[in-house]
Structure formats: structure tokens, C-alpha cells
Amino acid sequence: MSWWQEAVIYQVYPRSFQDTDGDGIGDLEGIRRRLPYLKSLGVGALWLSPFYRSPMRDFGYDVADYCQVDPTFGTLEDFDRLLREAHALGLKVLLDLVPNHTSDQHPWFLESRSSRENPKRDWYIWRDPAPQGGPPNNWQSFFGGPAWTLDEGTGQYYLHLFLPEQPDLNWQNPEVREAIQEVMRFWLKRGVDGFRVDVLWLLAKDPLFRDEPGSPHWRPGLPDRARHEHPFTEDQPETYAYVREMRQVLDAFSEPGRERVMVGEIYLPLSRLVRYYRAGCHLPFNFSLITEGLPDWRPENLARLVEAYEGLLTRWDWPNWVLGNHDQPRLASRLGEAQARVAATLLFTLRGTPTWYYGDELALPGVEIPPERVQDPALRRQRDRAPTPLLPLGRDPSRTPMPWDASPRAGFSTAEPWLPLNPDWPTRNVAAQEQDPRSMLQLVRRLIALRKEPELLHGAYRTYRAAGGVYAYLRGEGWLVALNLTDRAQALDLPRKGRVVLSTHLDREEGVGETLALRPDEGAVVRLG
Ligand code: GLC
């Protein structure tokens, strides 16, 4: 097995992990100082959300220089030191590559917009206005409004699937592809272990720029992007060739035992998602638990999802699972802490690489953000346009600072943090949960350690029972995971006697006979005799 199959990937949102220079915003030096914590959790790899030079209109997903660290986060030297120390601890480091768009302040775009004749004009997607005036077609931005903005100076529109300050690069242009591959080489030479690639499924656009058809699910109040189906702006056939090229860059830097990997951000139905394996993406993010599992938290539904996914994978495809990230509501807010513990048990005992979002190990809740402190550009833009934006509270609630201890500002910063802390930070913080033998933090640590058992790493998955509020499955020959998804006691007949090795309540390790009694909200991992 390769490191990226055995490792748990831990996502750090650099703005919110640890501030060391007293500006209320986290930095690379802060992440470096917290490496021992990450090591003690048992994770094998860190994915760092963007820290490149950026005007921060989309908090770093608008890159103005792919090869520089933004001063908010530190310097290249800080990064090199962080990487060196992470490696010394046996932690891999994945960077967030944002190849679909740049900042409108990137020198490439400044050149591109300077005149129609500029050699970089074709690095972005420029079109004439429609014959009757207005945007070239009906494509809508994810963050609300048309995906086109008119550049007065040159009289043409440029495409941006996100903010107008995030113009889309033209991936049809081989120079663009080469430029992004150069960026990859820059970081690979410095030693990074791979990339999480931002919006990988959006890189290619319909070469004919056809209007997208109306969606039957649209109703007034939904975000603009939901007006249409997206046969011309998502998952275009050209994308696979682009992925293949990126994979070649990674392979050129890989050695046995030291593979450089590509994790792809792809929101697509599973049947289309798995094609990205064929194109060479090591781990196309499987968001099905987020999109379909958490909203319908029943055994029948979870078993259906897991079986559907497992059924689509070939023996060369390695599964992966995700419960949260910086764009999604917090796990604990979706399920409550008791079931969040059950969900963690699921994530770490399914077959495949789990990705874990910082703070979820404390059952951090989504934090209510007062209107005057809202930062998320997606929410600010959509608030004015749609009564029901994609995420009604925006993404800030899931991006609040990591509470480390009970000292002022939770040990995160010496200044007022850029987003408020969770109100219960004096008790819900890392130090407090380190002291509490039954905390969520201890549970996550135990689960990550348990996952290193060979059969939990690569034993086959088989559904054992998915009914009556209990979801149970076998891993390999010797393990059974039983999850009580209800707040009522349940019982499960076991195939044979065994031993409860771990309970989400962290209060029992004991032999079991033919029947396993599950308390309300209890998940148990059983070693079968
Ligand atoms: C991805 C990121 C998100 C960002 C968007 C535009 O979906 O995860 O945070 O806003 O891309 O780059």
C-alpha cells in the first residue's frame, strides 16, 4: 500500500489554525508550531488551503502569484521550514492548487486585459457581447449573477465561474497548461507531496459556448447558478486530458514509496466521478457522505451509498471519504455531537482514505456570525440576489479559529480573530479535550490509531445489516462495525462472539456474546473471535 492510501488527510485552513504574528489571522509559522499536535492525532498528511499571494477576495482562492507566500501567512522560508519539520515528523504535505482561475490582480490577467492584441489575451476566456448586447451567453456564476463581466477598456466580456475578481484561465491554450504545470514543478521541487486541485471538474468549457438549458428544479429564490443544468460548464471531455497531463508532472517527481499525488475537488454524481480515476487522479474527492449521507442519516441510505460507490470502483481505484471542508456546514451542526461521533467512526472504518477537517475532532459547531462580521464573499454576493443562497449562512461558520486552550482568545491569537471563536471555547478547546478521557478528540485519536489494523486498512467491505436504526458492516474477516444511528437502545445479533475494542462512548472494552447491545447514539468496533 502507498502512503496516501494508509494516511488520514487533515485539512488545515491556514487563516484559522494558529496566529503567531498577532494580526488575528493564522499563519504558516503557526501551523509549524502545531505540528506536534497533528502528529499526536495520528494523521499522515496535511492539506493546506491556499496561502499564496492574494488580494483575499475569496480568501486565497484568488491567486495573484502562485509561487509566493502572501505576507499575511509569512514567507517562502517559513514554508520551507514548515515542510522540513513536517517531513521530519513523517507528515506529508499537500498544497491547494487553484488552476481554474487566478485573481484579477495576477500579472497574467493584467496583461490579458490590457489589449486585444496582448500575447496573454488568449490566456483567459474573452468573448464579444451577444449580438443584441449583454453577456455572450447565459452561463451563471457559482457566487451569483452572470459568469461574464464586461471589460470596458477592450469591449469584450471575460468569463468567471466564481467572483468577477476570479477570471477563468483558458485551459484550451497549451501555454496556460504549461504555466500551471510549471507552478506544480516549482512546489514539487521544494518537496511537497502533491496537490488538492481546486474545482478540477470545471477546467474545460464548451468550445462552442452554448447556452445551458433551464433546470426543471429551478424555483424563484434559488441561487442563479441553479437556474440551469450544466452540460457546457462542468465535466467536459477535455478535462480528462488535462488531468492526465498533470498526472505526468506528478509522476516525473515520484519514486517508489514517495508518490506525489493528486486529490481532486469534484462535485459530480458517483458514476461520473469515478472517470477521474481513469484519467489519473489518485483521489477524486468522494463527497457523497456530505451531499447524500448527512442529509438522510439512515442505515438504509448509508448502506446504499457505500455499496454504490464500492460497486463503481475497479481494483485499481482506491476509495476515499469526506465529512466536511471549508465550504460545507460543520459536521457537529449537521448531526449533533453524539451522532458526529458515530459519523467519525464510520469515516475511519470504511475502506479508503479519509479526509478530516480541522476542528471537527472537537465537535466544533458552526458558529453564528453577526451580520456585520460576515466575511464570505459568496454569501455577501448572494445575500443581495437570492433569498435562499446555496448555503444560507455562508461558509464563515465553518471557518472559525481553532480553540487551543482556555487562555485569552483561546490561544489562537493575541488580537481579535478575523472571525469569532465558538462561544463555548472556554470549555470546548484542545487542552480541555486532552484532559477529558471521553472527549471527541480522544475518540478521533483512537479511531485513527485503530484504522492502522491491516484489515481495517484494506479488508473488503460487506454490509452486515442496514435496518432498524442500525448500520453494521464487516471489514475483512475479523472486524465488525456497528453504528446505532438513533437515540434509542438497539441490539444486533453478531455472526460470532467477539470483543468490543472501541465504543464511541469510550467507556467499554469487553467481550461480547452472540448479541451486541448498543446504547443510544453508540457506535462500536468489534473484533470478531
Ligand atoms: C473551491 C473552493 C472554494 C472556492 C472555490 C473557488 O470550491 O473549495 O472555497 O471558493 O473553489 O475557488
From TrEMBL:
Record-stated family: Belongs to the glycosyl hydrolase 13 family.
Record domain Glycosyl hydrolase family 13 catalytic: where: 11-399
Provenance organism? Thermus thermamylovorans
* GO BP: oligosaccharide catabolic process
Please provide the record's keywords in A-Z order: Glycosidase, Hydrolase
InterPro entries this protein is in? GH, GH13_cat_dom, O16G_dom_2
The protein in question is named DUF3459 domain-containing protein
Where is the stretch described as Disordered? 377-403
